[in-house]
Amino acid sequence: MIGSTIPKRSLRSAIAGLAVVGLCAGAPLVGAQNALENKKTSANGSSTVLITGANRGLGLEFARQYAAAGWTVIATARNPADATDLNALGVRVMALDVADQDSVNGLVRALGATPVDLLINNAGIFPRVGTLAETDFNDVARTYSVNTIGPMRVTRALLPNLRKGGMKTVVSITSGLGSITDNTSGRFYGYRESKAGLNMFTRSLAAELRDEGFTCVVISPGWVQTDMGGPNANLTPEESITGMRAVIARLKPADTGTFWNYNGETIPW
User: Fold this and answer.
1) Which domain holds residue 76?
2) 66 assigned to some structural domain
3) Which helix (H) or strand (E) holds 119?
4) Would the pLDDT of 18 be above 50?
5) Which of the four, 16, 109, 222, 245, has the lowest number of CB atoms within 10 Å?
6) What is the pLDDT at residue 232?
7) How far apart are CA 62 and CA 41, in angstroms?
């Protein structure tokens, strides 16, 4: 778990404290969290994060917060010219469609040997399907391509860059709906399975790369007020991302292969 010597209750309290202090101060960046992040840098002394699906919602807020914390941010969008809010942050915006191998190859060529400390596989889609009778299997295939195979494509392609980074950390944004243990209500066909598949990929990746010192985890952002989550969700993007950044900042290689909630609690697979 995050910091094997830190009790889970203490960890949850610490993460909650970071989030509350940051929000009350009018900015999600607090000294304690920045200090933790700044310990994990590339050889050149800077920290670089690459975020997929950063043109809106959670990805945009990740980019905003990491940029404000002084990180080098590489943020991807399918159509960078249309990503007005993202471009306004002054980060490096690059084209990427995670469902298109040619697009992934183009990103790799453009990055060259750039070290990447932290990869956040954030791009995802959510087909709003309830029952099996309502399920469109073309939508299911598309959901798998983006939510499950997409992170596999991107992570494999960026392994050379991640190996050059100081953190060697891969974070994939999952969902509580991907928990098999917690699925007592059913529905959401295609989406649930895509996130469960992402979780299994992360467990396999963690096992494969453990001896290289990688940390590979999945984090659920909670129910967030985005285009995907809707206006009735109980978290703002700022609250969710502040919590997830606190979790990420405290990760150690021993935590590889774990499933976290944005608030620092673990989620059963």
Assistant:
1) 8-261
2) yes
3) strand 118-121
4) no
5) 109
6) 85
7) 18
Which residue type is seen at 32? A
SS3 assignment, position 142: helix
pLDDT value, residue 9: 38
Longest dimension (CA), the chain: 54
Entry field: residues in the chain = 269
Quick one: how far is CA 34 from the chain centroid?
18
Token representation of residue 254 = 């021993």
Which tokens go with 186? 């059913």
Helix axis angle for 150-164 and 191-209, nearest 10°, is: 30
Q: Residue 29 pLDDT more than 70?
A: no
pLDDT of residue 33: 57
Alpha-carbon span 265 to 261, nearest angstrom: 5
Q: Which CATH number do you get for residue 50? A: 3.40.50.720
Which residues are registered as beta bridge partners of 48?
Answer: 72
pLDDT (tens digit per residue) in 46-89: 799 999 999 999 999 999 999 999 999 999 999 999 999 999 99
CB atoms within 10 A of CB 35: 10
Q: How far lies 52's CA from each of 20, 44, 93, 96, 247, in Å?
A: 27, 23, 10, 8, 19
Alpha helices (H) in 27-146, listed in sequence order: 31-38, 57-68, 84-87, 101-111, 137-144
